[in-house]
What does this fold into?
Amino acid sequence: MVHAAAFPGAPCYGGSIQKIISKACKETEIYLNNQVDGILVENMHDIPYIQSKHFGPETTAIMTRICTEIGKIVPENVPCGIQILTGGNREALAVAKACNFNFIRSEGFVFSHIGDEGLINADAGLILRYRKNIDAEDILIFTDIKKKHSSHSITSDISLIETAKAAEYFLSDGIILTGTSTGSPADMQELNDLKNNSGLPIIIGSGVTCNNVKDYLDAEAFIIGSHFKNNGFWKNDVSHERVKSFMNVLKEIRH
It folds into this structure.
């Protein structure tokens, strides 16, 4: 995860677009120097988040600028993706198309839920049609199900498996399983249930560390943010040592 600093207009914006870009590129270089398998860029510091219907043009513009610069330093064989909080799935597709990125992380793909930002409605039909309209069908859409930082009481009668099957039926390219919050480990039983009942690739979207990575080897991929930061805290800078240690553990497992 490359957690971009707060964008213009967000309460935590620091006053310099160039600093946002430079920091994102520096973190990308740390990851590349440690041979990570992919890069995912996110406007994590735009707290408090707003729903995509309230975005100004600057959100898409700044993300495009950041991803353009990151694209210049990432080798072609390293896949890159985008998530724009909150629920900026069409915006993310547009940026990915403009920057030749490979995938997006989508919130609210199937079934509504209540997030910190309010009601998030399902948009699979809208974003898949948008992807078709802009000739971006080579861009994969990986979708959160029963996502973290959210209440799912309005869909409490719909199981995780049923949600995953709905995502598959609605043409998701892969499902993302998380814990309840940022840095919180995903439930291993839920991973096992998904492996046995879903035909989609499964990505673990939170809580993977050096200590527990062996527990999640049945997943196809991991999205790692907090564990790679100094002291394991999402607001801190990426730590070269923590990334290196994790990749060394992963290399040992792979061999």
Observations:
- The chain has a mean pLDDT of 95.
